[in-house]
Amino acid sequence: MGHYCKTCERERPNEQFSGSGHRIHICKKCSAMPKLELEKILLTQELRDYAAQSNISKKNVLRIERITRFEDHKIVELSKILLEVAKIAPRKKNRNKILAKQNFELLKKMKTSILIFDDFLDQSSVDDSSNFIEWIDADRIT
Ligand SMILES: [Zn+2]
Questions:
Q1: Ligand 1 center to residue 75 CA distance, Å?
Q2: How many angstroms is it from 48 CA to the middle of ligand 1?
Q3: Residue 55 gets which letter from DSSP?
Q4: How far does residue 50's CA lie from ligand 1's centre (Å)?
Q5: Are 133 and 97 in contact (CB under 8 A)?
Q6: What is the pLDDT of residues 93-111, one digit of tens each?
Q7: How far is the CA of 101 from the CAs of 7, 23, 36, 135, in angstroms?
Q8: Is residue 58 a contact partner of residue 91, using CB atoms and an 8 Å limit?
Q9: pLDDT tens digits for 12-21?
Q10: Which residues, by Cβ under 5 Å, contact ligand 1, an ion?
Q11: Residue 50 and residue 26: Cα distance in Å, rounded?
């Protein structure tokens, strides 16, 4: 029985974790990555987690604001998108519908980033706003 490494997102055998690696859930191989690379992965996951939460809290927003000052442009871009999303629709419920109506450009940006999940994308095209809203109404965004 191994441990889950949150960076490579898979189970790794016990011996792949050092003492501190256990605590922070990062395997030895990932710990050996350049620090910036590792930070980018962790921040990306953090932002995805916020996007997946039922609500992006004020405290989360403060944290996301700090992330917008990170030294990597991709992370900065993601965090800025999420910050805008949090202003318009902090709650996940109906978020895509609200964005489709209020800021479709932002929704498209979310689509092209990793902030909307794959299973969601497979079944809809956000290129056409009306189809998209129809699809959301029909189904699973609760
Ligand atoms: Zn790992």
A1: 20
A2: 18
A3: B
A4: 21
A5: yes
A6: 889 889 989 999 998 888 7
A7: 35, 43, 37, 14
A8: no
A9: 998 898 887 7
A10: 5, 7-8, 27, 30
A11: 20
